[in-house]
Amino acid sequence: MPSLMLTFLLAAILPSSKSEIPPDTWDCANDVEVWCAVDGCAARPEGEMTPMSITARRDGVFSVCAYSGCWEGETDLVEADGRLLWAADGAGFSTRPEGGFEADITLLIIEKDGVGFVRAGGIASPLLCARRAVDREVNAAETP
């Protein structure tokens, strides 16, 4: 009986929704652009590089932005020995041209080094990443 009472007490004290706990967010960017296909990989010349902006959260939500839009989605985050992995098939592009522009997304971040790797469509590039804690007040302001 005491363990049942403890369970009810913890349920009353702890948040009831996963969305109430702010997840860590990673912000990443690339210094180079690499394109890979079956026949190999090549880096784009510096003046032709497309900057990317990537945001990924511990709750599985991610956004990989390049060109005029972002591939966005949600997946189960895999954590192993300080490595974080987001992998999603068929992520939609926010400004889809006719016929769509979906891509399989793979994002890997090594927490202690703040470096990562992204594969989105034909892009396969190294990343520099920084972690930031999501402020509880910011989350509350965004919630309708």
Characterize the structure shown.
The structure is a single chain. With 144 residues, this protein is mainly beta. The protein is built from 2 helices and 11 strands. Strands 1-4-5-6-8-9-10-11 form an 8-stranded antiparallel beta barrel. Strands 2-3 form a two-stranded antiparallel ribbon. The longest helix has 12 residues, at 2-13. It is globular.
Strand element count: 11
Task: Label the structural class.
Answer: mainly beta
Percent in strands: over 45%
Radius of gyration: 19 Å
Tally the helices: what do you get?
2
In summary, what is this structure?
This protein has 144 residues and is mainly β. Helix content is 13%, strand content 49%.
SSE inventory with pairings:
Blueprint: H1 2-13, E1 24-29, E2 34-37, E3 40-43, E4 53-57, E5 61-66, E6 69-74, E7 78-80, E8 83-93, E9 103-110, E10 115-120, E11 123-133, H2 136-142
Antiparallel strand pairs: 1-4, 1-11, 2-3, 4-5, 5-6, 6-8, 7-8, 8-9, 9-10, 10-11
